[in-house]
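Email to the structure team, subject: CoA-transferase model.

Hi all, the expression group asked for a predicted structure before they design truncation constructs. Nothing fancy, just the tokens so they can compare against earlier work. One-line instruction: predict CoA-transferase, return tokens.
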Amino acid sequence: MITRAEYCVVACAEAWRDNGEVLAAAMAPVSSFGARLAKRSFAPELLLTDGEAMLVGLDGSVEGWLPYRRHLTMVTGGRRHVMMGASQIDRHGNQNISCIGDWERPARQLLGVRGAPVNTLNNPVSYWVPKHSPRVFVEKVDMISGVGYDHAVGPYHRIPRVVSDLGVFDFETPDRTMRLASLHPGVTVDEVRAATGFELAVPDEVPYTREPTAAELRLIREVIDPKGVRDREVRA
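Reply from the structure team: attached below.
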């Protein structure tokens, strides 16, 4: 049986399809597994990073050094595709990882904006949300960290996809608002709508997220994540 977590790994991997030789930077286990799966299967040109200063191979071994100057060149020239997390995300793709509540007196302090503004304006950024809920998918983010389509400037701004534990979302609508692109098997449109705090664009027919191939399943289970970390991030 294919687990929900394995569908999520495949959905994350698909974010890097046809990207060519770009730096794939992922911020969480499932999205990292997705980047590694993409490189091992249909995107061999991807460059993988350890998140700091090294380029790593398929087995996690160090293959090269990525000087900070070269890293910044990739970041500001559209040659990196990041998959970040989101404490909040809205219909336009604005993301918040800084604070919950009013900026003057927030109810909760989070990571801060970090590199989100530079990431989103200068290279493609997708998002991975392991627990889809109205607290995350909100009408309006409390603070903009990552820039959405209604505030975007620059030639490299692009949000290819948002992946959650319920489905896959994109912004392929006339007004660049979030659309339900696919459902993970076992999830209904009504469940997604109930877990989303804004009106989501939903096509008349919504496909299911594609199944991993037999080869991809073997890679996920035996090579990329033999300890089953994915199932701790995504509950069945």
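Helices lie at 4-13, 29-41, 68-76, 116-122, 189-194, 214-224, 230-233. The two ends are 12 Å apart (CA to CA). Ping us if the truncation boundaries need rechecking.
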